[in-house]
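REQUEST ID: PR-0412
SUBMITTED BY: lab tech R.K.
PRIORITY: routine
TASK: structure prediction, single protein chain
INPUT:
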Amino acid sequence: MFEHLTRRKALRMACAGALAAPFSGGLLKQALAADPIRAVTWGGGYAEALEAITKNYKTYPISWSLYQNASGEVVAKTKAAWPNAPYDISENWDADFPQLYNEGWLEGITESDVPNLAKVPSSLKRFKFPDGKLYAVPISIGACYWGYRKDLVSFDFNEVQQLLDPKLKGLVCLPSITKGTGLILVVLAYANGGSENNVEPGWSFLKELAKSGNIGRVANSEVDFSNSINSGETALTFWNPVLWSAVKKNWECRILSKADSKTLKSYFYQDGFVIYKGPRAKQAMDLLNFLLTPEANNAYQEALGQAPAITNGKVPAAAVDMDFSDEDFKNHAIFCDYSVMSREHDGWVKRWETEIQPLLRA
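STATUS: complete
OUTPUT:
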């Protein structure tokens, strides 16, 4: 069940840790095996999918937690608790992986640890220690792209500049600067001639958009996105297939992942897991191996509408928006440099608070 540890369980675990010292090696292993794998993921569709999938995992118990906002919060939480990591395994994405690696917290992972790694294409094994071991293992390929509810948007939206159209008054759901390591700023920068290395065009456009009155919601969580679009509070946004899968169940949408447009691009990423150094690392690797089986991985992609990270996986119908050929990638895809974004993100958040939030309240 996805919930934070109760005080009683936390006390039991603390007592178990205090009593572990006198145990023999065998008894200590048994005690650790009895404690759950502490795992954390996002809310919304991610939590629902993993809850259903891991009901079929019987080897070790799992205690799931949810991020309160963005997955990057695991960095501060782990730093505060280290060397006693608060989680054994966490679901993260491209923006988080280098930050976690740079702190020295992560286990190296090989095929001997996780045999199903053999089914992950070498091109997706991007996050490695110098010795070749992986420190992040993808389980899914996703992208963020523009889309909207056709029943609520009265014209064909084909370029980012149209976000300023008065016909979109209150209908834009804007991702918060905290989401995706400031991805929306980079998206608007690219659309206006900039990039992650030159975000000033993005800031200029954000100010115009905030003044326009077209932003009806700033989404800080996955639930914010789906509630806002599904309820009709807003109708148009830029986010990932987890959102669009949830909305398309209820409403006819126009998805712009392959738009014939100079400014509406798709921004690709991996999501996957890292494993922290600690007494349950081997158990966490066993769980990760389970998540890379075709049965578990296909169920995950089917639930979220993303593409599999294993060669023996199945692309679900919901992932048709990301079924890109080489030519599609050339024409419609952008791969951000998240190392740049991670380095600049704190400054972007502060600037958002001083330059954008006051305009939203005006």
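NOTES: Confidence is low (pLDDT under 50) at residues 1-31.
REVIEWED BY: pending
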